[in-house]
Fold this protein.
Amino acid sequence: MRLFVALDIPAETRDALASLVARLKPKCPSAGWIRPEAMHVTLKFIGHTPPENLSRINEILAMPRSTKAIEMQFRGLGFFPNEKRPRVFWCGVEASPNAAILASDLNQALTKIGIEAEARSFTPHLTLARFKEGNGRGNQVDSGIEIVTLAREMHAKDFGSMRASEFHLFESKTKPTGADYTKLSTFHFTEAAS
């Protein structure tokens, strides 16, 4: 099983980003565009794990707590690692400090059962597309340079906000049409969200 822990995003944000992707996809059709229904904010990537570990993972994920809901604002567009050699095209996420705390708690708690800790700091974002390296000529975004221009123009565009009081354990299965995500479990970490 290939697993990850994530927050769902609101329908309004999903719809706004679906419209954006529909507009941009024809400009760079060779990129790996994320289907709107698959968009999420990852808190912890677990990776491949045997099915017999699932019950222990669920026990650990039930433990983290927060005194308040996570607040998130979806704003702006950008690239990892940068726009000159982009590998990932993303929508930015401005999150309340307890989002990073929750991600860190999950990261540390899962090391108790041998799941490797994430070395990078938590950087909340919504992946919109992935680009592959080309044959020594840069990568796929070269043919979709309008995406870079648009990202610059929309660096402050607002795509919505949310309050989250629960996160989910997902299983990821790779299919010819892209990754397919199945929600396996839901964990309520606070009662403060409305």
User: Anything to note?
Assistant: DSSP finds four helices and nine strands in the chain. The two ends are 33 Å apart (CA to CA). The CA atoms of residues 1 and 48 lie 5 Å apart. Residues 97-111 form the longest helix (15 residues).
